[in-house]
Amino acid sequence: MDISHKKRTLLKVILLGDSGVGKTSLMNQYVYRKFSQHYKATIGADFVTKELQVDDKLVTLQIWDTAGQERFNSLGAAFYRGADCCVLVYDVNAHKTFDTLNNWHDEFIKQVLYLICFGVWPQADLNDHEAFPFVLLGNKVDVDGGNSRKVTEKKAREWCASRGNLPYFETSAKEGYNVDEAFLNVAKIASENEHTQDIYFPGISETVSEAEQRGGCAC
Questions:
Q1: Which CATH code of 3.40.640.10, 3.90.226.10, 3.30.2350.10, 3.40.50.300 fits the domain covering 3-214?
Q2: 13 phi and psi angles, rounded to 5 deg
Q3: What is the mean pLDDT of the chain?
Q4: pLDDT (tens digit, 9 = 90+) per residue, 12-25?
Q5: CA dihedral sign of residues 199, 15, 172, 33
Q6: pLDDT at 3
Q7: Each residue of 113-148: b (16+ CB within 10 Å) or e?
Q8: Which contiguous run of DSSP H or E holds residue 113?
Q9: Closest to 160 measured CA to CA, from 101, 111, 104, 85
């Protein structure tokens, strides 16, 4: 069968990280080949899609961009449901954005556990939730020719090793450096973890389930 006639697979990818690390810039560079110095801060969440071929599969990568706030979990569990990969982003020139990676990583895992608890995580038999696929991007390597850098590649790779050998890419959303390579890797990892689902564009206001509305959890 010609690949154009095969059913497309939706891969949902979540971008997480502090405000100003370049999540929106990375997304727009990858999808639209555009960069701006004047993006407004993301409010809530937004997504874009890009079709690409991963091995012999035609996939639709649905990339969710979030506000870089510690209260991101207030967006609602519908935002996380069905995610196939989580991309953590930090700015190599701002150590604080690296220091908060543990918070972003652990909070996402907490949300996965919450959804499993209510039985609405598509991969409900996910026993080892800590095996959920993450990718780390160290962005803005172009700034000041690298002279302003605060987080070394060695330190970033040590963090990835401590979290189960996460894939790591250094990128420049402005220059487009390593952006395609990073997201192709994300797509491959997401494809390996994909959930059985139709192409679907959920709304942020969507509720998790009637069980959640009633409150309580049987876990």
A1: 3.40.50.300
A2: -120, 135
A3: 79
A4: 999 999 989 999 99
A5: positive
A6: 39
A7: ebbbebebbebeebeeeeebbbbbbbbbbbbeeeee
A8: helix 101-117
A9: 101
The Cα 11–Cα 200 span in angstroms is: 10
For the stretch 129-164, pLDDT in tens is 567 899 999 999 999 999 999 999 999 999 999 999
216 pLDDT band (50/70/90 cuts)? very low
pLDDT (0 to 100) of residue 7:
55
The residue ranges of DSSP E strands in 31-127, in sequence order, are 45-54, 57-66, 85-91
Encoded tokens for 76: 């609602």
Q: What residue segments make up the domains of the chain, in order of their start?
A: 3-214
Cβ contacts of 137 within 8 Å, gap of 6 or more: 26, 87, 88, 89, 90, 168, 169, 170, 171, 182
Q: How high is the pLDDT of residue 32?
A: 93
3-state SS assignment for residue 162? helix
Q: How far apart are CA 5 and CA 7, in angstroms?
A: 7
Strands 134-139 and 168-170: parallel
Q: What residue has token string 């009637």?
A: 210
